[in-house]
Amino acid sequence: MNTIYFPKIKELRTHLDDLKLKLHVTIEIKGKQVSYEGDAVHEYTAELVLQAMAFGFSAKQALQLIEPDTTFKVIAMKHFTRRKDMEDVRSRVIGKEGKTKRTIENITDCDIIINNNDIGILGSSVQVEAAIVGLGNLIRGTKEANTYAYLERHNTESKQKYDDLGLKEEEKNKRKTTSEDDTDVD
Fold this sequence. Notes:
Layout: E1 2-5, H1 10-14, H2 16-23, E2 26-30, E3 33-37, H3 40-55, H4 59-62, E4 70-76, H5 86-94, H6 99-108, E5 111-115, E6 118-124, H7 125-140, H8 144-164, H9 167-185
């Protein structure tokens, strides 16, 4: 039986039955300590979901971790900078009225929560890694526009890689051989 500490337990209490059903584990709440038990595979998934919820994500967002390609990562802003005034670093990541954070979320299609000096990122594995690089650059002092450009460029490159799957090359080779056969006939 594993245990996780929850600073805010209300979200978990609200969705407890749904979580038990979808995660296939038994969940017990004792104060702010949450214990869960089940098969090893289900326990691993439950741990990811419960850690995401403990960080501050909603149950709906955290349940995305059931999908095999979805990842949850927590990064410490202190690992990307030597600055002592972490409030300025946080405000840089959040942006004016949350605009920078929202823009990064929209470009990467990830959910981002800033909790003290940590940033929680939830999304597809490829996009989470891109968001980590983008946020790291932003924390180090890169301009917002350059960070957005990097993330957009990463999106187009990853879409090309996954859309292609090598099938277009085979099609091009077939066309080449077909056109070469047509020229041989002349």
